[in-house]
Each structure stands twice: as C-alpha cells, then as structure tokens.
Records
---
Amino acid sequence: MIQIGDLVSTLMNGFLVGSMYALLGVSLTLSINGAKMYNWAHGELATVGAYVIAVLTTFHGVNPLAAVLFAMLASAGLALVVDESTYKPLVKRGANAIQIMLASIAVSIFVRYAVFIYAAAAFILTLKANVVTSTLTTFLGVQISSLYLWIIPSSLLTVFVLRTLLARTMVGKQIRAMSDNPELARVSGIDVTMLRRYVWLIVGAIAGLAGAFWAMYSFITPEIGFNLLVDAFAAAIVGGLTIDGTVIAGFIIGLAENIGAYLLNQTLGVPTQYKVLITFSILIAVLIIRPSGLTSRRSREL
Amino acid sequence: MEKTKSPSSTTRAIVFIIIGLLIGSGIGYVTAVSTRASSSSSSKLVTYTIGLASDLSGGGESFGTETVTSAQIAVTQINGYLAAAGSNVRFALSSPTDTLTTTDGAVSAITTLASAGDDIILCHCWSGQLSAVESYANTNKLVVVSVSSTSNLLAVPKGYLFRMIAPDSFQGKALTTLLWGDGIKNVAVIYRNDAYGQGISGVFQTEFTALGGKVTLEAYDPTLSDFASEVATLASNVQTLGVGKQTAVLFIGFATEAVNIFGHATSYNALTGVRWFSSEGPKGSTILPPTVPASIGQFEVQTNITGTFPQSITNNSIATAYIALFKAQTGNYPQSYGEQAYDSVYLLANSILAVGSENSTAVKNILPTMASHMYGASGPLLLDSNGDKASQDYAIWTIVNNQGTYSFKNIGGWAAATGEIIYNQ
C-alpha cells in the first residue's frame, strides 16, 4: 500500500541520487566530447574520490569541505596521469577508438583492484564518509536529512560553473572548439595538448566530486564507481551528450529508479530488485524514439 | 643383402628405444609415487595437503578469515597429536585462496587449487558459490567440504561435495521459534535474492505462516550500490502490517548490504519503531561502530536486533578448547562457521588417514562413515543422505552498547534436538 511519507522519501532520494548521476554523467559527457573517447575507467575516478573523502573524514578527522577538495584533486590527478600514461601514447601511435576503449577497460580493472587491495588490507571494504548531518524535518514519519540541502544544490552549482566556464572563458571556448573539430582547433593555433590536460583535470574533479557526494550519502565499496558507471552512461546517452541534456537525464533516471521501483512494487507487486530495468527501459525507449537523445548536440555546443 | 639387413636393424633399434622408454617410464612412475608419499626423504615424513579456499575479501571477509584461522588451529593440533604418537604423517593447508565472496571467485579459487594438485578442499563457500563449483568439482573428482553453504536448494546428493553445516530448514525453524516466542505475529522479510536468501526466507515463510503469522517478502539485488527504494518499500510493508510490538523486520543478507539498509532505515519511524531480527549473514565487526557511523549502532541497539548463527549450544569440551585457542590467537571469540571449519579439518584428516592417501574418490566414499563416528566442536558430525550435516544448533546474538563500545552478545540458543530456545541466565 502506498504511504505518502515513503513516497516523498523516495522522491527526495530520487533527486539526490539523480543529482549524483547528473554529475557523473556530465563529466563523462565532457570526456566523450573533449577527449573523444568512451572512458570505461570513468567510474573509478568516482571511486577514488569516494574513498579519499571517506578515509580522510573517518580516520583523520579532516573537515568535510576540505576532504571534498582533496577528493576532487585526487581524482583529477588520477585522470591526468591515466591520460598521459596510457590514452595519449595510444592516440599518438594511431590506436583506433576500439583499442583505446579496451585500454580504458584495462585501466578500470587495474584501478578497481588497486583500491580493492588497499581497502582489504585496511579493512575498509565497506565505508561511509563521516559527515555529520541533521534532520531538517520529519514528514509523515520520514526524517528529511540536511544532506539533501548540501548535495542537490552543490551538484547544480557545479554544473552551472562548468557551463559558465565553457561558455564565457577563453579556455572553455577552446575546449568547445576542440570538441567540435580537434584538427581545425589545432591548425587554428590552439594548444590542443594542453587543452586536453585541462579537460581531464575537469573531468576527474567532477567525477571525484560525484564519488565524494556518494560516500556522504551511502556506503561505498571498491566497486561503487563501476556500478554507477552504467547510470552515468545512460544519463549521457539519454541526454544526447550535452551538458543540459545529461543533467535532465540524470534526474529522470534517479527519480525513475526510486519512485518507479516503489510505485511498481506497491501497486503491481513488481519486486524492487528489478529497478535497474527501469534505467535500461528509458535508455532503449529514447534510443528508439529519439536516437540523438533528449537534447541533441548541435555544432559547437557541449 | 644390405637392402634386407638395413630394415631389420632399424626395427631392432626402434624396439630397443620402446623398451628403453617403457623402463624409463616405470622408473619415473615409481620415483614420482615415492616422492609424493614422502615429501621429506630425510625425515620420511608424509605430508598430506588440504586445499583451502575462503572469502578473504568482499561481504564474507570476516567469516572467511575466521575459517582460515580455525582450519589452521585444527591442523596445528592434529600435527601435534601425530607427532606425539610418533606418526610420520603430517597435514598441511594450502595457502588460502580468496573466493572474493563471489561465484566467479569461488570457481577461480577451486580451479587454482585443483591445478596445484589439491584434490581435497575445505571451502568457505556460500550456497551460490558451492552451486557454481559443483559441476567442476564432480567432473574433476575434487572433494569439497563447505562450512557455510546452507541453502535448501542444495539439500540433494552432490557427489564429491559435502556441507559441514545443516541446511536452512534448521535456521528457518530457529528464527521462527525465536520470533514467535518473542510475541511477533507479523514479519516484513527483506532478503538477498540468491540461494542463501531464498532458502532461509522460504523456510521461514512456510514455518511462520503455519503458526498463524503474517509474512511479507521483499527480495533485493545484492549487486546494486544502493537500497534506498528497497528500504522505502520495506517501510511501507511494515506500515501495512501495522507498526507495533507484534511486527518485526527480518533481514537475511550480508554485512555489506546490511549497513546500507540499516543506514536508510534510520530515516523511517516505521522501521525504527519495530524490532529487527537477522540471520547470521551480517554478524561481524563491519556492522558495528566505529566501522559504521554511530547512528547505525544506535539503530541496531534501538531496534534490539537479534539473530541466529550456527554454533553448538551444549556444554562441549571440544568447543571450549577450540574457542580458547581461537581467542588466544586472535583476541576475539569466533563469530560464525569457525567451529565448522575446525571440525571439517578433523573430518578430512581422519578420512585421509583411514584411506592412507589423498585419493579423492576413496576419501569421498569413507567421509560419511567417518563423520558418523565423530563428535566435534559443533556437535555430532553425522551427515544426512545428501552429504549435509544432519543437525545444527543455533546460538542467538544481539548487539549491546557498553559506554559507546558496541559488541555482539550471545543471549541464548536454539537446540535442534528439542526445537526450543534456551536463554542464558
């Protein structure tokens, strides 16, 4: 039987989870457009960010805000290192898209198991960031946490800052130009090598932020990023590989997974364990009805 | 003349070569056999190795570590007895192979051990993992003794596979007796959707409804990252059943999922307002502060979470000695499956000694007979016709907060012989 309080709770959770899908999806979209590759190690950037904030706040008493910054820095650094050490050399040697994608799968596995080894040795295979939250209000028997007020606006603010950076700054305009036509950007005098580094730093920082938020919201494991990658890809594809579209799609998926699963269970008795099907149903439906995504990418637009 | 002589000398040469190869093979075989039977020719010790596969990472890590420690305690003891008796036989455990708490990990671990020549294996395998290795083990004649697989779905003859723990029908009955005895009439069950969760929840539902109780079942996919919508659904199920002293939640899963579900449950008054019960799955330090936030520890104490776990509850000198050794070695009391691992090593060692070799088929054939004459830390080791332990007691645990330090506490037990709960004084 549907309980209004529980329904509101799933709605709030839908927005919360959707905002994190949106963040991860936006950074994925940026890497697909900016670096021209489907990075399967993207989830691991979030995993690293999640573990950094969880370890710093739980075991070292670091202020959560400072820990978030450390998480973003760590993930940004990892993204840059992986590109410089793996992807860029492959591109220089003329590797095609499939070869680079396969390399990213290998990187994903490598990083995931590196975190696995560390977490197992430190007995922190399951961990949550030690961030003190309060109950804002209790609505029909459900406590509404202050976390909602932190994560959802912060995610939207991050996307706004990214949009402003891409639209208003010289670097942003150059990234858009490179995203549109890398060769033309290069012959126009844009330092695409340096620009690519900026892209990876931004991608890593945002993915790390998404991971950090997830560690504040729920428990993490070394597989957390890989598990979230499916939703991030779904958000990016459904959103048409644009920033605005990915944000909208992220919220749609987050809400659909939560509210959809709850309503289907309480009205039709569909087990909640099948909620992943909702994500893929949306993905398939959008690809059939509107293959370009909810908002298709026009020229010089990210 | 030379044309006819040449082929006959060639034939003779081939015959000599074949005879030479046969003699060489014979010598090689004899040498190999004598080498295998005597790993240390100078001391003439014969060492038999028992393969060890266990969850050393993932949700079953704490159980898997306990299995390894307990098996090592047993081997050390056995070797001590053998040395004191002047025997030239010794036992060894292979280096523990991680089953990762996954089915793929279990298959990989068993394959690795088999490749290394270990045909007799002790495994901390859950039911899903044991199912996954069943075909490979039987095809390759590997004796695999699981200390933690309990699903009723596997309560069938399994060839070379044995379970040193009784099926879930026992734990389902123990939980039913526990909840019903505490005055619970309505239960919202949330369980991991695998052989383990399906097994216990299925038995519990049958037993509890037979007594006149009401049960709602909710399965979750344990591979997901978050269970927010599952917990919201659970809260609605509890409200439908009616929040109060006669309603409870029964959690059947592992620690990794438990902390996530408990974490979300703290937000729902419906879920903090009823008692919680659990199988042995989450019992481990990973669900206690400081590993988890204090709010979850408070939730566990507030809801008086109470669970069952397989352990002998009779006064048993073998169990007492084992527990003392375990505590001396680790500083902690064994949580779950340690007794089973300890007993399994003794059973395998006795079977190998009876056979006089590591012949897995011979060990498989003698193992049930040996078990029927043995009594271990977990009680009588008698196996049923499916190769599963024929009986199992369950201890009852809860969580207490002693001035900010959270720990497990045994408060009683369910005796398989009588089907009754006995609370500690």
---
Amino acid sequence: MKKNNKILEFMANNSRPLSSIGYFVLLMVIFFIGAPEVMIKVNLHQSVFIMLPIIVFMVVPLVFVITAGEIDLSFASTFGVAAYVFALLVKLGIDPLLCLIIGVLSGGIIGICVGSLIVYGKISSLVASLGALFLMRGFLFVSSNSKSITFVEVRDHWMYELLVGKFYGFPMQIFWATLFTIFSYYLYRKHVFGIHVHHVGDNADSAAQMGINVNWVRIGVFAYAGLGAAFAGIFSSLINFTWWPTQGFGYLLLALAAVFIGGTPTWGGVGTVVGAVFGVGVVAYMETGVVAIGMSGVWRQFFNGLIIILAVLGHRFHGTRIR
Amino acid sequence: MNSLIELKNVTKKFGGITALKSASLKMDKGEVVGLIGDNGAGKSTLIKTLVGVYSPDSGEIFIRGEKIRGWTTAKAREAGIETVFQDRALCPQQSIVWNIFMGKELKYPFGLIKEKKQIAEANKLIREIGFTSELIDAESPVGNLSGGERQGVAIARAIYNKAELIILDEPTTALSLMETQKVFDFVNNVKSSGRSVLFIGHNIYHVYDISDRFILLDRGEVVHQLDKDDVRSPEELMKVMKAAVDKYH
C-alpha cells in the first residue's frame, strides 16, 4: 500500500514530464501501426537522431527562459551567428576546438546583450528578441554577402569524430545532447540559479523582496539560451561541413512548439526539462514519421499544428496557474 | 550604544509625489515598535526603504552605527533584517521549502542546493509554527494553503534566519482570531529572545497590545513618537495621535 502511494505521489509530482513522454509514446505507436515495416528500420531512427540533438540544445535552455516568465525568439539567429563565428575562424586556420569555444561564448554574449536590452531597456522580451532575431539575421546576409562557407577540412580534426562522428551507427551528438540535458536538469531543479528562475517567473516582486537579483536571473536565462543556440548552430555546421546564411531560421517555431508540447506552460514559474526533451522527440519524429507512414510531406505542418493543440489541451489537465 | 538600525532624514519620491518626507527613526535591540498611520501615510514605503526594496532619494541609513551605501534587500537580509511583507512575498506555485529558503538557500559549493537538509528543516519549522494537517508537508505548493498558513510560511522564513530585527507589515490583516493570537505569540517569543520587532498595523488595539513604543506616520512624515508608559489605553493613544497630526499639519 505504501509503495503504491509512493508511485502515485511520483506520478502526481511529475505529471507534466510524464504526459509529455505519453504523447511521444502515443505518436510512436501510431507510426508503428501505420507503417511497421518502415518504423522497424534502424536507419530511419538514425536519420532522426542526426538532427534531434541539435533541437535539444536549443529547446532545453528555452525551458529556463519560459519558466522565468519571458520568451526568446532571437535564439534562431544566435544559432546562425555563432556558427558563422565558428566557420570564419576555422577558415582562418585556427584550431577548431578554440573556434568552438569562441563560437559558443559568442552565443552567450549575444544572450547577455539581448537579456540586458530587455532588462535595462524595459521592453518586452517578445518584441526585443524579435528585433534581435531579424537584426542578427540581416547582419549575416550582409556580412556573408548571402554566400555559404564550406569547411571540409574539419573532418580530419580529432574533434569531428568526437562531437558528430558515429558510435555503432548512432551519431555522437546524441551523447553530447544527453550530457547537456543532464547538466541542465541539475541546473534547473537542484541549483540555486534554476530555483531563482522559478521564483522570478512565479512572482518577480516577491523574489526581489527576498533579495534575489531579478535582473541578473533574467539576463542569465537569455545567456543560457544563447549558449544552447550556439552549440546547436556549431554542431549543425559540423554535421554539414557548411555554414549558410539562413541556417537555423527554420527551427524557430519548431523549437518553441517542442517546449510547449513538452509541458512547460506559457505563464512562468513551472516547467520541465525532461518533458521538453520528449517534446523535441515529438516534433522530430513528426518531421519524418508523416512521410514514413505514406502521407505526402505537405501534411507535415498540419499534423504539427494538430499535435501542439492536442498536447497543450492535454497539459491543461495538470491544472491552471495556482495563485 | 549604537542603534540596531537608524534612518536619518530619508526622503522618497515617486514621480511628483513625496511618499516619505525627511523621515527619521531608530530601533534598539529587544524592543517592539508599533508603526501606525492611516492609509497612504507612507508606512509601506518606509518599510520598503528600510529593507532595501526602494532606494531613498536622500537621507542616510545606519546599521549598528555604520553608514550603509547601496542598500539592497540582499544586504538587509545579510545584516539580520527579515520582513514579513504585507503581500507575504511568496511564490504560490513553488513548494513551502523553496519559499522558506527563497533568496537564502542552503548550498554546497558551486551553488547546488542541500535539498534534503532544506526539506528536513522546513518540515520541522512548519510543525513548530503549528501546521497540523497530514496533507501538508514541506513539498506542498504554497498556492494550496489558506491565508493564515501562507502567513505562517512567511513567518517561518523569518524564524529560520534568526533575524535581529523582524518587520511585520500588517501581519494580522485577514487573519482569524486564533491566527492573530499566533502572530502575537510569535512577536512575544522574538522579544523575549532579545531581538526586535517593527510591527505595522491598521488595528490600533493590536498595535497597542504588542508594542513598547509607537511611531506615528502621517503624509510621509514622522509626526510623533511615544512610549507605552505615556498612554494608558488604545483610546488614549488614538487621542494623542490625532492631536499630534492636527498640531503637525
């Protein structure tokens, strides 16, 4: 009896991530029933897992942003800028590891700038990050003259195999994205920064009255989103040996959808990192699964839309905001 | 001996409105001071300036005789001042334990939280302040608690941090008789342990019962200060206060 209670308590405390896992499993079941012969093929999953970790890098930090009661759109361009910094430095002949470090840091710095604009300029994060999104993308077009950069030479560097090589057929980026997720989970639930993110998103006035530096927390979440987007951009460039000017733009709405499908509500104060990862699973498999079960690719967006609405309706059963 | 805290000629303006006008006050160790005044007298502004939520436009703040620069809520808490704000300063979606340790978490190096210790301490605290329900433990969200229980969480936070000065802003508003009595017991406990309380209230009877000294605030100014020995009843206190306001303005 006592054991049963423990299980029920665990389920009640983790209803958001658990239902997000539920949606993922449900989707997989549908695809398996729809096209078992395609879904049992390992290479389909291998191909999904090439890009899925990239989305994880973007989405997990967005959980922090949305829990803090903010929104970020600029990450989709930070993705491009950080990868651009990386590509330019590689082309200059600098050691790719150093290029990676500088590229990732550039993402963090962009995040700090966007966060500072929001905090000290006192403007809404939706508008500020929208502006930053276009501004940075515009800069990339102008600066690169709309031309892509190819850097096949990184393939010979030891870092390439370690970061995006293959391990028994599965891409290494899965390992790095998993590590990033575990780190983020601890940062979100067990570290003072993550706990302050929850407080600020729940009631920023109370947080300030209790001595939490609300401005720093807000800037911090944007910096983390910048770091995540930079990882995503650089990994994506490494996979393709190429940087191109529109890189990352297509992930904008998909990444945000994954956060909400994953069970993080829009109002701030609560959220789930684990749920978001399964939200990524849903959007990533949707991209390939729809075609796999024999439907035309034109249905993809339709089903993406449908699952967002159904998932968010489902998450409503976890209750509305407690005040 | 230096006062625990002292405000000297503190002024705070919001736009064109002067919420505090050259206000001065002192608090010593082990005393309970009642701060009284009408709505809009500037009580909450005074408190929020005292604890660093607002920074004063002019004037000085001294802690144990030392002049403070760049006064913030974090510094006030470090200096041993805890506040139970009128709105209780809680995060309703978060657990009781996260609320109790909000802003002063128990940490390992690198900022990881001592989760088990926090939960154990919080469970002990909420039993101490009289939570009896089996359904509530340290991990329950604050949003599921009643008004009195939420007040209890805000007070538990002040108790845990063993503050030298505890500021209670309208602590008895919307509380039942029993809950109000609990707040009074708490104030008496704090006082008998040699610490100080600044008690802000609308209800003159509550303030009279509990305080050793009274400060009257009106239209942003400290218009009168008196000891409990100077008056014999809440009614007399009220009369003295009214006369002081009339004389001052």
